[in-house]
Specification:
With 339 residues, this protein is an alpha+beta fold. It contains 8 helices and 12 strands. A hairpin with a 4-residue loop joins strand 10 and strand 11.
């Protein structure tokens, strides 16, 4: 059973979807996607002992309701695993934790272009922005302003050309907290955590852990190959959730940028990742915008892919990771394809 937990409510998606749940309803809520407790045969001895005792009490004569409730409220607690920050991981670390490999060859990035055309007013806005902010320091906030404007422009173009007419709704979310547990890092079990700067979400709230395109921002001239581990970790976490859910297409797209350099990533169904780099002055905003547009269109199509009845074998060596938690503050709904 897959459920969505907010701070106030629990919604069970194993039955029919009866309540209309909008993003405005769960604004400022923390979302938790989780799987039901596994079968007792796979649980710890403490859990089995507690469950057996609970079963005995439920059938015993003379047991008060209060006594039974007290026992239920005091289950065996598992010790909390240490947390591992995604930003501290290298690509090699991510490969080892999730059984990934780096793909060879340019095949993943041979796609038709252009999908959209950048309007002249975007270039005008960028010139004005650069002029007005040139004395300021090269901060991540400055980079994000350019990224915000670019994403708005891309979405408007895709919508105008009809690419987002059919299929799930689309929204953009900031500062999405991710947690994947557990992973094995340096021979120790740890909970992998992080906070993605941008997430393009596809579909209803119950799907957000599976249908993401992740973008990570850095300060001006701060994006480099040394920071690739963080975005790869986020993408691997999302793919693990898709696989556990039985998604037929587990490909994940991501980007790392400082507003000047754009590193684009693709993690395919076989657990192989590849990356390409574009530079604004060398390649132009139009080329970069079309790569992002293609990623959004692909994510839109992936969100509509069917579920499998079971997870088929894969070449990836990673163990199946049971859940991905997303604690999301849905304050920043920048756009919606449902308009």
């Amino acid at each position: 059973m897959l459920s969505l937990r907010t701070n106030e409510d629990i919604f069970d998606f194993s039955s029919c979807w009866t309540n209309k749940l909008s993003f405005s309803h769960i604004k400022r809520s923390h979302l938790l996607l989780y799987f039901e407790m596994p079968a007792l045969a796979n649980s710890s001895k403490a859990w089995r002992s507690w469950w057996d005792r609970l079963h005995e009490l439920s059938k015993a004569d003379g047991v008060s309701t209060t006594e039974l409730k007290q026992f239920i409220d005091d289950p065996p607690l598992k010790s909390e695993l240490p947390k591992l920050a995604a930003e501290d991981m290298t690509p090699t670390d991510v490969n080892e934790c999730f059984g990934l490999t780096q793909a060879r060859g340019p095949e993943a990035w041979q796609f038709p272009r252009p999908l959209i055309l950048i309007r002249p007013d975007f270039e005008t806005w960028l010139s004005t922005f650069k002029e007005r902010t040139s004395p300021s320091e090269r901060t991540e906030a400055r980079s994000r302003c350019k990224i915000d404007g670019l994403l708005f422009t891309i979405w408007e173009n895709l919508k105008a050309h009809g690419y987002l007419e059919n299929g799930p709704n689309i929204s953009l979310q900031f500062e999405t907290s991710l947690e994947c547990r557990p992973v094995t890092y340096h021979n120790k079990q740890q909970n992998l955590v992080g906070k993605a700067d941008y997430c393009v979400l596809f579909g209803e709230p119950k799907h957000i852990a599976c249908h993401l395109v992740i973008l990570e921002a850095k300060q001006d001239h701060g994006a480099s190959t040394s920071t690739h581990g963080q975005i790869l970790a986020y993408m691997a976490m999302v793919q693990a959730c898709r696989r556990a859910r039985g998604q037929s297409n587990s490909t994940v797209w991501g980007a790392l940028t400082d507003g000047q350099w754009f590193y684009f990533f693709r993690l395919n169904n076989e657990g192989q990742w590849s990356a390409v780099a574009y530079q604004v002055h060398r390649d132009g905003w139009g080329v970069i915008a079309n790569v992002i547009a293609y990623m959004i269109v692909q994510g839109h199509e992936t969100a509509a892919s069917p579920l499998r009845s079971s997870v088929s074998p894969r070449s990836s060596k990673a163990a199946r990771i049971p859940c991905l938690n997303i604690a999301a503050s849905l304050d920043a709904q920048m756009f919606s394809a449902a308009l």
